[in-house]
Please model this.
Amino acid sequence: MSRAPRQHEPFVPDDGEPLLAAGAFNRRYEQPEVMEHRLLLAAGRRAADEDRFARLKTLQAGGESRAAIVREIGLNWRTVAKWIRLDTLPERRAMAPKTTTPEHFRAYLARRWAEGSTMGRHLLAELRPLGYTGSLTNLQRFLNPWRRAQFLAVAGLPAAHLTAPRTESPAHPAVPPIAAAALCIKPRGQLTEEQAAKVDMLKMTSTEFASMRSLAMRFRGILKGADPGKLDPWLNDALSSRIHSMRQFAIKLRQDAAAVRNAITELWSNGQVEGQINRLKTLKRAMYGRAGIALLRARMLSLKQLSEHTV
Model:
């Protein structure tokens, strides 16, 4: 049985370049759940292509014409013409690396990483003279798998700990992240039967969703119940949760705890003020560089205020 390398041992990535396992996983640049979401999207696109390819082969075996297959499946006729000649669905071809992509400098980056240079900004400064024209964000995204590999090696976790995609079955269909976020903050009484079923399924298959929804509903109850005494226990529970975004939210609330308590207990709100400020900024930006003071005043002041101002 293989074991994860210790912190002082070199880590060897898939391409064979040795990497040092020193350092910690930098969560600032890419969260594991973000990477998992990207993997799920890629797996979903691949599954959809395989389903269309299987349907195409079924129609082709049934003697259907290319035009009929195009109408039935909805693919471009060029794709249909290419797939008809194939026995298996081909893998997506990777784009040839350009100077705007860090992949073009993989060998150099792997060598510098093995030498202990793991800071993206330092590597960016070294790549510029070599012809790299991409951004720091793109470079950090390229380095993220190496950072995750370091973290897994140091923590002694298997490689599939953060990247293994979830399996999907007809009993547990996939729910888009945006829909799951909306369901997480919607009270049970406002859910439709279909939404309630999705919430129960998500709570059953994801402990993170169950914990997030529990914290969200408790916070909603604190705001609706006007009981600031429950705020501190909620903050402690949120800070001790394993959900990064919830911990960050609790930290921000604690930094302005007095304002949060006032929002819970007071009937007043600054929503009207914020709305008026947003309206004025929208009008100003819409006419930026194309209007004088007189026109701006006419757009922003009511007729009564404008007449009083000009008298």
User: Anything to note?
Assistant: The two ends are 89 Å apart (CA to CA). Residues 19-160 form one domain. The chain has 15 helices and two strands.
